[in-house]
Amino acid sequence: MRHTFWNDQFRGSPLSGRGWIFQERLLSRRVLHFSGDQLLWECREQSACETWPGGLPSALQERAAGNATKAAYTSWRCGELGHSLEHLGGPGQEHMRISQAITAEYSACDLTMPDDKLIALSGIADEMLLVFKDDYLAGNWRSQFPHILMWTGGKSRPRPLRAPSWSWASVDGKIQWQGVAYRVFVIEIISIETVLSHINPQLASSPILRVRGKLVELEWKMVGRR
Asked: Which of 74, 133, 142, 143 could in theory staple to 91 by disulfide, Cβ–Cβ 3.0 to 4.6 A?
């Protein structure tokens, strides 16, 4: 059996790459997938299919596309990932890892209406908001600045802007989070001013970010090419 078995079954589905489906999959307690040749099952206890009705072998489970994010979020919301949600008392590094994994995978999904970029993720944001009591600013949590600025990628930035240029939600296409030592930054967040969206008061439509940092003058030269 190919090690890409689950990927081949799940990722080949027309719905698997849709933004709204991504949120529904994470929020649902149980999911039944209809692939081209069999049914696949996901729940809190296990992932299974007709080939392996008792659960995927561990080797396939680890390689299953999206399973890590789905499993981590399920454990996180159930209070089984290190600490209970209610006992965390506020967003920390664990919260940041979960939210970055979600946004990175979600960013690769397609949307019929590009302006739904943040709305199609708002159900997950609502769950996090209830526990962490944090401000949700254009797809980012206030307590995660400046870490949340460390992203790269995206294919294009549509106009007019649906989010500030410093937000991952401003671009179409998959983004990646850059690895950086926790709390090692040379910039200071001065202020984040927000204007609440009329669509969802929890979504800040026009946050203005002000930072203070040092500038270094660089000289760039191209070598070895004509």
From this structure: 143
91 preceded by a cis bond (ω within 30 of 0): no
For residue 122, give the 3-state DSSP assignment: helix
Q: Which tokens hold the place of 11?
A: 């990722």
Cα 197 to Cα 119, 126, 137, 200: the distances in Å are: 11, 15, 10, 6
For the whole model, what pTM was predicted? 0.76
Distances (CA, A) of 91 to 21, 136, 145: 26, 12, 12
Nearest to 3 by CA among 53, 66, 61: 61
Peptide bond preceding 160 in cis form (omega within 30 of 0):
yes
Q: What pLDDT digit, counting tens, does each position of 110-163 carry?
A: 999 988 999 999 998 888 887 777 888 888 888 888 888 889 999 999 888 888
Nearest to 96 by CA among 50, 147, 135: 147
Q: Enter the tokens of residue 85.
A: 């949600």
Q: What is the model's pLDDT at position 180?
A: 61
Average pLDDT score, the chain:
77
